[in-house]
Amino acid sequence: MSTNQNQSITLNCLATLFVNDVCAGKTNETPAAYLSKLRYLERFLKEKKYTELNQDVIDEFRIWLINRKTKIRGKKEVQGSLSPFTIRTVLTTVKHFLKWAHEQNLIPKVSLKNIPEPYPEPKAVSEKVFQCLIEAAQKTGKDWERARNTALLYLLRDTGSRVGAITRLKLEDLDLNSGTAVVLDKGGRYSWLFFSGVTTQAIIDWLEYRSTLKPHVDNLFVTNKGKPFQRGYVQRILNRLSKIAGVDNERHNPHAFRHAFARDTLLAGADLSQTSQLLNHSSIITTARYYARWSKKELVHIHNKYTPLKALEEKRT
Questions:
Q1: CA-to-CA distance for 276 and 114, rounded, in angstroms?
Q2: Which of 56, 82, 185, 267 could form a disulfide with 191 if both were Cys (CB 3.0 to 4.6 A apart)?
Q3: How distant is the alpha carbon of residue 40 from its chain centre?
Q4: pLDDT tens-digit profile of 117-146?
Q5: Rounded Cα–Cα distance for residues 163 and 281 (Å)
Q6: Which of the pair, 273 or 110, is modelled with greater confidence?
Q7: Does pLDDT of 7 surpass 80?
């Protein structure tokens, strides 16, 4: 790809430089997320055999992205348009990348201003899928595996935690008496997790088996070889259970549990500030933007719950 210095640099190289610079050595999910979004641009350039980035190319890329009829699910390409959330996050990442590359004098100035981007819709795991996953976990594998995977599912669903934080959760950071834990979360911030009695009991059941795996670490969740969980390992567990339960075509990725938790708390009556703190968001704006979005059916439920004429309705009935 041509730069201002007439050198040939591939997008892959530029993307790596970009991530190393803007992420400043972070080891959380952000660098991987940036690279995955920029792969759409890399694929577009390869398909079109473009070797330069300019305004016309970027304008065409946006149209190509919105009109795609296939998407990547796992490692397979399947039929289906990209979701509004995916389109929006890809465009946002590309916009950030283009600005950075221009500031580094690597490409000409290219703008993504005034381009209407689809607004994200919450991508929550459904209650039906969650129940199917629980049932699959409770009947699949050895006793220790059933206990571990059940505890993992309940913790994901009950806390709304990022999966990276759960993989880093240490035994010493658990307080089963109060149903709380302290975890190292995104951006190196510590946050609280809160969980109910059902989840507490599931963790206790798992701890009865954990020592039999002779773990080498003090992480709560370990593999059959006693090693700590990685994010990809959690996804593989969910993929396996979803296939056994027959819901592998339904949304079941770890972050979908976080979406479900956020929307459930808001629907139950928690305000944005409370949900934001439970999710350990850096800003209440993030909570509102990604989770406070409702379907017509949900708005009917919300209206029925909070209408100022509710008392009159109750008297009539």
A1: 29
A2: 185
A3: 18
A4: 555 566 899 999 999 999 999 999 999 999
A5: 15
A6: 273
A7: no
Distance between CA atoms of 148 and 292, rounded to whole angstroms? Answer: 32
Predicted TM-score (pTM) of the model is 0.68
CATH 1.10.443.10 occupies which residues in the chain? Answer: 127-298
DSSP 35-52: HHHHHHHHHHHHHHT---
Measured distance CA(279)–CA(181) in Å, rounded: 13
Q: Which CATH class is domain 127-298?
A: mainly alpha
Q: Which tokens belong to 257?
A: 């549990």
Residue 235 one-letter amino acid: Q
H helices of the chain, in order, are 11-22, 29-48, 55-66, 84-103, 127-137, 143-159, 163-167, 197-210, 231-245, 254-267, 272-278, 284-291, 296-306, 310-316
Distance CA 127, CA 125 (A): 7
Average pLDDT in the chain: 86
Can you name the CATH fold of 11-103?
DNA polymerase; domain 1 (1.10.150)
